[in-house]
Amino acid sequence: MRLITLLFFLFLVSCSGKENNIDLILYNATVLTVDAKNSVVEAVAISDGKFVATGTNQQIKQLASNNTLHIDLLGKTLAPAFVAVHEHPAISAVFNDFIDLSGFTHDNANSVWQALQQAAQSTPKGEWVYGSGLDTILISDLTLPSKQFLDELIPEHPVFLVSQSLHSFWANSLAFEQIGITKDTPNPGHGSIYEKDQHGELTGFMTEKASAPFLVDLKSPLRVIPSYQRVLQQYIDAGFTSVASLGYNFPPLAAKFAANYWTTPIIRQFFYMKEDEFSYLPDSPDNGDDYFRVLGVKLWHDGSPYTGTMNLFEPYLFNEITAELGIVEGHTGGSTIEDQQLVNYIRKYHQQGWQIAIHSQGDKSNHKTLKAFQGAITTPHDLRHRIEHGLLLPKDKLVDAKKLGLSPSFHINHIFYYGNALQRYILGKQRAHQMLAVKSSQQQDLMPTLHADSPMFPADPFSLMRTAILRKTHSGQEINPEQAITRQEALRLMTINAAWQLHMDDKLGSIESGKLADFIVLSQNPYQLPAEQWLDIQIEQVWMEGARRK
Ligand SMILES: [Zn+2]
Questions:
Q1: Distance from the CA of 195 to the center of ligand 1, in angstroms?
Q2: pTM here?
Q3: What is the pLDDT of residues 340-357, one digit of tens each?
Q4: What's the confidence (pLDDT) of residue 274?
Q5: Phi first, then psi: what are they for 341, rounded to 5°?
Q6: CA of 265 to the centre of ligand 1 (A)
Q7: Residue 377 in this model has a pLDDT that exceeds 50
Q8: CA of 441 to the centre of ligand 1 (A)
Q9: Measuring CA to CA, which residue among 386, 384, 415, 548 is closest to residue 477?
């Protein structure tokens, strides 16, 4: 009994109750703290935007003063706010209000072209019609459109379309005319082309930077800033209070302005700069504040499994699906950076103290990326350099990753959306069953995380966690189930691990005394609900630093 009294006394001291002037108490809750023991408590006390105590209803209520606001959560679940570690909000802002033509929404070509036609019918004649998500993998009867096809389908509007991979684009004749691109316009180079037929006429198809003139108006500040604000609010609505942007960023001043940084920021923003954005790097990694910080650099070692640019040891499968993607027989993809250049970049930015995040999907790419880190870094560090996506990060390389101080962030919904296609058409069964070694990374204490890479996949934390738990494709097929994690682990990956990767784990990612009061209120307790039902969980409230944001 004396021990209990002593512990209770220590509890009161540790949360230094009344002198903290508790602003807010939330009680009658199931609080998933995501502390080291995954403790579950009933109530929390908040003062000055921070959690100052967690415990039973009785313990916490005793801390109240006259000014304390009490909120009865009526048995709902309170959890740390999610942390989005790898997204592209600026790209989302550009493409935000495009017509959705993706295989997530449509399952046949008819449905895709009907959606586009309907969009044109509700758009005044002569105005632009934009669509995104064209995808011949998920929509197997889809043929990529020619200029002539689009001219016939939409004769009275300029049309501009983007593939799901964001690397390929299409336009109709009116669009080319308005932008001023003709068959005589030179290709931008570096693989970016305006495709021509055997008569030298534009086919309507273009790749990569060839699309730039079509994007100028879409990127105008008048359009893009309100769009960026909507995108940031969408992350909040999904339960995130932090978002990390991994390249393709707006200039920092624009991103600050758009997020209302100088008043009440919409969300916490963290940035990694890619090669042509290195000039935005501040003088020191010790920059910014809890709402806005540049964390480091983003490098690419390879590309995407859906464009043949993922770097593999053994060739892609060769069949009509991969042929449609432009993959030739025996193709293994390549690296987008010279080996020595990668070592040089790692060495340079590591020495300057920046965190480094490297896009690496294929087995060969991961192999070479680890080798580059080995070549560049010789001493222990705590910079938490990141491997991005890690589709085929080999399980037997995780020990090396640990020694090098690396941490993977997994593109987990490759399984849900493309798992069937990866297994059947792109990688084959054996390699598909080596994908996304999440469990092994967790066991190796690599602090793995999950991400959506939006706009690639929807930034929905419960969808990401559900896939990591179930390892099921959209048709219910299991992929590499030995890498499945538990519900508790899934929540850790989206909260405390994610905060750790952003060097914010001392302030975010769990509900513990002293941390910022970023949390969500859920309709149901994910620890008690089968993962199959996690998409039914409603994010009813979102709070950032003790203030309600949703
Ligand atoms: Zn990305």
A1: 26
A2: 0.93
A3: 999 999 999 999 999 999
A4: 95
A5: -65, -40
A6: 23
A7: yes
A8: 20
A9: 415
